Model the fold of this input.
Amino acid sequence: MATKIVRRRGRKPSRQLNLSKGSQPLSERQLTPSRSLRAKRVVKILRERGRQYGSVGPSFSGIAKIWGAYLDLDLSASDVAMMMLLLKVSRAKRGKVSTDTVDDIIGYCMLYGEMKGV
Done:
């Protein structure tokens, strides 16, 4: 996978992964129908989980309090989203990756971004 340095005005250079098979980075290509369907599926899953377990903010805040007490750390709801994401990535790295695993990773990324306001 190729990486390139991207310079942004007023910021340090950052690395940008080129995930495409062609010459354009993924961010510059149109979403294919399968990617669009996956995004819709992940949003549907998040909504279903919200109906089952309640709003993600209070749910992850509660988890953060329990994990924080156990670890003697001050954790936030976004910390929980990131740690769940890392759990899924760790599992994917060790074994066969399923559609559900990728959907979960995308879902936790979406939740983390939403909680961080990005």
Remarks:
- The beta strands are 2-6, 14-18.
